[in-house]
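User: Sequence in, structure out. Go.
Assistant: Echoing your sequence, followed by the structure tokens.
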Amino acid sequence: MSVILPLVVALAGSFAIEAAATPRRVSVRPGDVAIRLGSYALIAAFWFVFSWRPWLACLSIVATIVVTVLINRLKRRVLGEPLVFSDLALLRQVPRHPELYYTTPLTHPRTAGPLLLGFAAAAFWYTVEPAALPHGLGPSLAAIVALPLALLALGFAARTRPGRAAIAARFPVPDLEADVARYGVLATMLAYWARRDAEAAAPPSAEPLSLPPGRGDAVVVVVQLESFMDPARLGGATLPMMERVRSDAAQYGRLTVPTHGAYTMRSEHAALTGREGASLGFGGFDPYLSSGGREPTSLARLARAAGYETVFVHPYHRDFFDRAGVMKELGFDRLIMHEDFADAPRVGPYVGDAAVAERILAEVRGRRGPILVFCATMENHGPWKPGRLPGIDDPLEQYFHHVGNAGRAVEALVDGLSADEATLCVFGDHAPSLPCYRPGDGDPRTDYALFRFGRPSTDAPRRVDLRIAALGCRLRDAVRSETASASDPSVAVPRS
């Protein structure tokens, strides 16, 4: 009985807290409520393993729900999406790279203080509340071992065929908003994690993908511009780059991307593979976590098969999004990353776009054959907050400053590649996560442009609005070659 009362109080309190914070009306169907309460009980059992004190464990689950609700509310406000299982994998990035998130380092008093107080309160409670262990050394040790084993057995059962079938029956396809309203954030995160794990364990069904026939361009440069969209759409001045796009690009337009304000890897993956996020199932929330770059449709893989040198350029740390390993798997021969820009000028906290454009052109000038360069810029990455730029504290003005630099970098690439037989594609990975531009404000699409140099054309630039996966498929035309068609006519591709 000493365990039942605190558990009932914790489950009821957690349900009330989450229901009050959920934008949609929560489901009260018995099956849905049972799954929601079951997720609370699982977390309570997890905390119970560490203390064997019922009230402490149950208070811990209430605290877990409060923290989850607060973070979920912040994420909805900034990015327009609830918490999802892949966010747990990104948590390890926060202490490593706090400057990318609106957080302070763990050693900062604003972070360290509450953490130390929380540990102190738990330690004090630990001394006050007696442990709910059976009497006697043998039964106590048996209980201490049995509960963790039971939780491990439950996790193992979820990975068996009957367990996976039961979870799939409740969660057949990703429907994040509806599932959160039915089952709660914690249950949805756990179930989606299990569903992604089951998908990863299933062998992919493959079919051949023929490389496009014909002659490809000797130089293919694809630049993913961080948080880029035409600043005129946010009330800023028109970039000279945008005027040049409308007069010189072979094709340009608005680009539909998977998210607002974050999750660069979703856009990056779609551009590199030509695959829609929906085709990835539950892995679409973080394609790199799901596949680790093992994508037969990768543009880099196809280019390498066509005889291209493949280079990935990103002026940030190798461990972020596990990019170093993922990009190798995607088919890039060489990675030019943070350490290669050690002496490059910073604009704000990150390497400036001008230095990145200069490095791209150096790679093109030093090539020994056809080359594909895919670059993800960093200068305009958030957060935009006071102190970032000297004399500019307004977030929107900071954004305009950086996006102007991005425009000049693109113009430098256009000038530097115009004498080559080359394709240049530039696009924004997502709209900026600015306080004045939240999800639902205006048109969420970014902008893209596709330049073709070194080939005569009488066609005027045309606007074609695309989804980002379609842009990725369009880029395959630039790397086609007779050599690849003859020697490597097909690559195995999973059905989408």
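User: And one key feature?
Assistant: Residues 208-494 form a domain with the Alkaline Phosphatase, subunit A fold (CATH 3.40.720.10).
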